[in-house]
Amino acid sequence: VKREIRFTRFEKEVLKMKEKIILLVEDNPDDVELTKLAFEKNSIANRVIVAKDGVEALDYLFGTGMYAGRSVKDLPVVVLLDLKLPRIDGLEVLKRVRQNETTRLIPVVILTSSSEEKDVVEGYSLGASSYVRKPVDFEQFTAAMQCLGLYWLVWNETPPV
Amino acid sequence: LHIRFGETFATGWSALEKRLLPSYVWTSDPLTFWRERILFLICFIASVFGPIALIPSLLLSYKEGLWGVILIDSLAYVAAVTIIIARNSLFLARALGFCSILYALGISILFILGPVGAGYIWLFGASVLISTFFGLGAAVWTLVVNAIALLSVGVFIAYGNPEWALHVENALEKWLVMAANFLLLNAFVTITTAFLLNGLKGALLTEQKISRNLRESEEMFRSYLENAPDGVYMSDLQGNLLYGNRKCEEIIGYRREELVGKNYLELNILPEKSLGKAAQLLHANIEGKPTGPDEIELISKDGRIIPVEINTNVVQRGDQKIVLASVRDISGRKKAESEIQAMARFPSENPNPVLRIARDGTLQYANEAGLNLLPDWHLQEGRDAPSVLRAVVSEALKSGLTQTVDLEHGKRTYSFSVAPIAVAGYANLYCRDVTERKRAEEEIRRLNRTLEQRVVERTMELEAVNKELVAFSYSVSHDLRAPLRSIDGFSRILFDKYQDKPLDDKGKTYLERVFKATHHMGRLIDDMLKLSRITQADFKREPVDLSKMVRDIAETFRKENSERVVDVDVREEIMVQGDPSLMRIAMENLMENAWKFTGGAAHPVIEFGTTVRDGETVCFIRDNGAGFEMAYANKLFGAFQRLHTTDEFPGTGIGLATVQRIINRHGGRVWAEGEKGKGAIFYFTLP
């Protein structure tokens, strides 16, 4: 049984109205590809910016390093954050995002393979907006990704910049 | 011959008396004894020799038809025999019976034969015996009875006209003269006998009493002497022993029979060194002088040396001068004396210093061991003690409590116990060299510190293992899931999209991703197993030629990746002590790392060599590959930690964790230096 969420007309309208961006922080290229494939169904794949490790993610958000000069006001509606990342790991990224004045209110969803209680507790206590475990089953993975996209892109009200 | 006969007779008679006398006589008073002996003597003689008189008398009486005489004679003989046989009946009864028979005999003969017969003689005998047996009263009564009997005979002559009187002229007159003389003589003899016996009895009793008193007194004195608390002996002036009391036996261990009669100078009771002294004492005695107290040693029968105190005196015994001496065993006293002396020597013999310091701080006494220390402390008897000790002594005397103080001197430590003797106004200081103990304590402390360190090290090791375990379980939930998701995801997409059309390029990349994920998962599992094996593997230490090992590894890599040209520079003869198989795994991982990260370099160079850091030889593997940012150096060696994304450089993140684990197990350290884009150096030490 295929479980696919198809956006309603209204939802598509909303998507079109705003230039909404999702920041996906993921070092595993397969996971990046799978996430994009999941989003493809509702044509939100092209709104996904990928950061391959913690450093890249922070660079994007703070307009530093390889993203130097980017307007920091232009924030993604949500950050999908993996925990295990080269160089700077996910929790450290979260900590720094929450410490930064411009990014402190941004919704951050932890999206990881780990379901360790320690990670969940630490994630929430550092101010994660949500904690989602990536299902191994692709059907479920697709459903979870579409739900997330719909929720954060359409229904969630972003904090004022 | 005469003498022998007398002896034989006396012996025989004594034996006879022993058998035939009543048994009580041997313990009776002397008079009764003699009376019984007389009664027995008479009856015995009568029994044995009686027939000599009896037979002619019976024959004559038979001829003349005097049946009364025959009867009375026979009766008398039977009575004598009976008295001997019935010897255990009452003396009074036997004596009275015997005397009565004699009397009856006399009277009967007198009446039957008249004054011409033997009647008077029997009467006389009977009365003498009665006075002998019964004493003065009985003698007087016998006289009265005799007088009455004679008077009756007279009356019988006057009025009875007996036949025998017819043949005698003037029978009555003759009878009268005869009776008067008889009575007079009878009175003389019986009364004298009675008096004599009375006197004799008194004399005998007195003598018996005296002799008993004498015996008792002698026994008493003998008993005093016997039981005297000191040994007492007597000897003559030549040294021949005459007597020794019980205490003497006790002291010397010989029975007196073994000693008395022998000369003590010749007996083996004096050790050689005592002989002179003994002779000296005897010499003084010969001159009539008493001696003592003198101490002398004796040898007991069982060979012990017994110290004794001896006092002698010279006393007269009869016409002889003898020596009376008392001997006292003083071994107990000697022992006590020697103990007291030993006690007195105690402090001086103490191998530990013993000092005595007076209240005013002057040193009063130091034993031998203490004296040796004095110069070191600039001490001297009679001078002031060091101020530290003075303070403790004063404190001890004030509080009355024993104080302890440790003094260092040179390399040695002395511990003083300061015992205050407040009454005497000084304190005794007992000192002990506690250097060794201190050293031992220090050693124990050091060992404890080492132990603590080892506990810390062990804890760290355990923590490392634990960290690995945590990382392992973490990776099971994270790293192992990722490839599974790839496999599931891409294979499903292929299934969905390419059911009715051939694979295009995109489809092929999906399929490639499935292969890669599968391969990656296989490697993850292999690496994890390797890491866990290192933790469990047995560990041995032997020389390992690292240079050769690195060259071999490089050769293997070259064969597997023939398209790569890598310059591997290995310094010769780098030898370490380690576990060869573990070191092989570590070196493989390091080389693989270098090989991998030099993938992008124009002229890849890997160098293996040694250098010296802080006096320690350190091995290193240097490459000119991708390098890393030093900011993340601490993450390098964590299991499943990666500094590069997998599409830059593939890997599991376990390799360096494995290296660290191996080097740590060897007791060494591993660290890395690097710069992004310029290369990395991995250092490690092996003790």
- The total of helices of chain B stands at 20
Unreliable sequence segments of chain A? none
Q: Strand portion of chain A, in percent?
A: 5-15%
Q: Numbering strands along the chain, what is their spatial order in the largest sheet of chain A?
A: 2-1-3-4-5
The structure class of chain A reads alpha/beta
- Separate helix tally of chain A: 6
Biggest β-sheet description of chain B: 5 strands, antiparallel
Q: Which class do the helix and strand fractions of chain B yield?
A: alpha+beta
Task: Label the overall shape of chain B.
Answer: elongated
Overall mean pLDDT of chain A stands at: 83
Using only C-alpha atoms, the radius of gyration of chain B works out to 70 Å
Subunit organisation of the chains: heterodimer
Molecular structure report:
The complex is a heterodimer of chains A (161) and B (687). With 161 residues, chain A is of the alpha/beta class. Helices cover 42% and strands 13% of the residues of chain A. A 5-stranded parallel beta sheet of chain A has the order 2-1-3-4-5, sandwiched between helices. In chain A, helix 2 (29-40) packs across helix 6 and helix 3 runs parallel beside helix 4 (90-99). The model of chain A has no long low-confidence stretch (mean pLDDT 83). With 687 residues, chain B is an alpha+beta fold. Chain B is 58% helix and 17% strand. In chain B, strands 2-1-5-4-3 form a 5-stranded antiparallel beta sheet, sandwiched between helices. Chain B has a 5-stranded antiparallel beta sheet with strand order 7-6-10-9-8, with helices on both faces. A 5-stranded mixed beta sheet of chain B has the order 12-14-15-17-16. In chain B, helix 4 (91-113) packs antiparallel against helix 5, helix 17 runs parallel beside helix 20 (655-665) and helix 19 (580-597) packs antiparallel against helix 20 (655-665). The two termini of chain B are 130 Å apart. Classes of the chains: A alpha/beta (161), B alpha+beta (687). At the A-B interface, helix 2 and helix 6 of A face helix 16 and helix 17 of B.
